[in-house]
């Protein structure tokens, strides 16, 4: 076996003797000896370095919100007083200080420990890397060539797919009026005429009380007796209503399918949003008109642009000599053709043939029953029906009837209607 001895930290191993069978015991004892020595000499660890500092500018004013970045360590943000606290284990570690509008500064931990006040110099940070992305077309540009004489509503109509111009109507309610057998009266006139009726003055001492009762439907009502049959004719109170157009609202396809609806598209003129849609805005001073429906682009203009945006750019003034542009447009529209051939209408002679055929077949209801001795002519008969009636009751001979019938067939009011039609001439100067 091996023979060994331990003296302090020194181990002496002698040559093996004649006991090889006990080699395993030697190895176990050797492992225990090495473990004991390792525990007596642990690895020495470096203690952390903590630095408290302050970040200021050139005028020793605190820099709040500055970034203090420690390489391979935790970064920090300066307080309102410019103070910061960092920790690291290596005094050679580099610390970088930066803030918007100042040049970046780097110091080692050793240098920072000697002078914890870091002063930043004002400057412009250069952009080391940048990328350029291609801008996609987000809108539809409207062609304004040869359209300077039109307005915005006329230019947009049919120019952009999916864009429609909806006319908005508003119903206005007028004052109440009284409808009686004597005619139509205003409420004030009617109130004065019924003050003599019993209980009216007590129930409605003032005209405002009477008017309020009519508007909310609490008025009991009055009637007039018919002197012929004794029927009661009620007095009716109605408020007149008028419907008028309030303007044009541009809408993109699908906007009216929203549950809450939309208020049309937002109009932006030279970067400024405006209320309403200027349908009558002339195009002679407009550089471009662009319709945007892209949601990402519309989001920039807020909630009012939910239905889309119409961007209008006017012509900018040019430096130099004064310039005057004059344009004139002349439009001629001929009078419409209202002839019977164009409109495919029956002529006077054709209409008389229809009347005569119905008369010959006995399918008319204006002829009297001669057996009952009834010769009274029904009211509201046309000239053709009056001739046929007189022929039927023998008031008109056949020859006279035929002469009047032929004269009636030659009558046509087309020439009179042509007098109401004329060619249209429009001029536009800008």
Uncertain regions: pLDDT < 50 for 5+ in a row? Answer: 1-44
Characterize the biggest β-sheet: 5 strands, mixed
Q: What's the β-strand tally?
A: 21
Q: How many helix segments?
A: 12
What's the pLDDT, averaged over the residues?
78
Strand order of the largest sheet: 10-18-19-16-17
C-alpha end-to-end distance: 123 Å
Indicate the percent of residues in helices: 10-25%
**Overall shape:** elongated
Report the structural category.
alpha+beta
- Strand % is 25-35%
Whole-number radius of gyration?
A: 52 Å
Task: Please give a quick description of this structure.
This protein has helices spanning 23-40, 109-114, 152-156, 187-193, 200-203, 207-216, 295-298, 340-343, 348-361, 383-392, 398-409, 414-418, and strands spanning 4-7, 10-13, 49-56, 67-70, 76-77, 83-88, 94-98, 105-108, 117-119, 139-141, 163-180, 183-186, 223-225, 232-234, 236-252, 266-269, 272-274, 286-292, 309-314, 328-333, 424-429. With 430 residues, the chain is α+β, with helices and mostly antiparallel strands.
Structure description:
The chain is of the alpha+beta class. It has 12 helices and 21 strands. The chain has helices at residues 23-40, 109-114, 152-156, 187-193, 200-203, 207-216, 295-298, 340-343, 348-361, 383-392, 398-409, 414-418, and strands at 4-7, 10-13, 49-56, 67-70, 76-77, 83-88, 94-98, 105-108, 117-119, 139-141, 163-180, 183-186, 223-225, 232-234, 236-252, 266-269, 272-274, 286-292, 309-314, 328-333, 424-429. β1 and β2 (10-13) form a beta hairpin. α9 (348-361) packs antiparallel against α11 (398-409) and α10 (383-392) packs antiparallel against α11. The relative contact order is 0.08.
């Amino acid at each position: 076996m091996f023979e060994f001895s331990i003296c302090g930290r020194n181990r002496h191993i002698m040559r093996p003797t004649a006991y090889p069978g006990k080699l395993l015991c030697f190895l176990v004892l050797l492992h225990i000896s090495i473990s004991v020595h390792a525990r007596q000499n642990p690895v020495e660890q470096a203690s952390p370095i903590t630095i408290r500092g302050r970040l200021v500018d050139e005028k020793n004013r605190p820099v709040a919100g500055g970034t203090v970045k420690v390489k391979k360590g935790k970064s920090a943000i300066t307080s309102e007083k410019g103070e910061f606290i960092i920790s690291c284990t290596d005094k050679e570690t580099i610390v970088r200080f930066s803030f918007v509008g100042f040049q970046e500064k780097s110091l080692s931990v050793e240098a920072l420990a000697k002078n914890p006040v870091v002063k930043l110099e004002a400057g412009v940070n250069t952009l080391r890397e940048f990328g350029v992305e291609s801008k996609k077309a987000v809108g539809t540009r409207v062609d304004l060539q040869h359209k300077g004489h039109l307005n915005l509503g006329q230019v947009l109509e049919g120019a952009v797919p999916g864009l429609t111009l909806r006319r908005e109507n508003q119903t206005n309610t007028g004052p109440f009026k009284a409808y009686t057998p004597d005619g139509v009266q205003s409420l004030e006139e009617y109130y004065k005429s019924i003050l003599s009726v019993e209980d009216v003055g007590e129930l409605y001492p003032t005209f405002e009380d009477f008017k309020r009762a009519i508007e909310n439907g609490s008025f009991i009502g009055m009637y007039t007796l018919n002197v012929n049959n004794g029927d009661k004719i009620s007095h009716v109170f109605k408020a007149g209503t008028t419907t008028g157009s309030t303007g044009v609202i541009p809408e993109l396809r699908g906007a009216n399918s929203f549950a809450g609806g939309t208020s049309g598209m937002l109009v932006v003129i030279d970067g400024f949003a405006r209320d309403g849609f200027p349908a009558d805005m002339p195009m002679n001073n407009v550089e471009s008109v662009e319709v945007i429906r892209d949601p990402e682009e519309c989001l920039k203009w807020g909630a009012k642009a939910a239905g889309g945006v119409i961007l209008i750019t006017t012509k900018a003034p040019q430096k130099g000599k004064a310039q005057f542009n004059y344009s004139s447009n002349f439009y001629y529209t001929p009078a419409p053709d209202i002839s019977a051939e164009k409109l495919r209408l029956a002529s006077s002679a054709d209409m008389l043939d229809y009347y005569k055929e119905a008369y010959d077949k006995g399918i008319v209801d204006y002829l009297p029953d001669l057996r009952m001795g009834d010769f009274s002519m029904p009211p509201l008969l046309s000239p053709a029906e009056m001739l046929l009636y007189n022929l039927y009751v023998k008031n008109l001979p056949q020859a006279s009837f035929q002469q009047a019938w032929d004269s009636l067939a030659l009558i046509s009011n087309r020439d009179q209607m042509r007098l109401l039609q004329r060619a249209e001439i429009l001029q536009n100067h800008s």
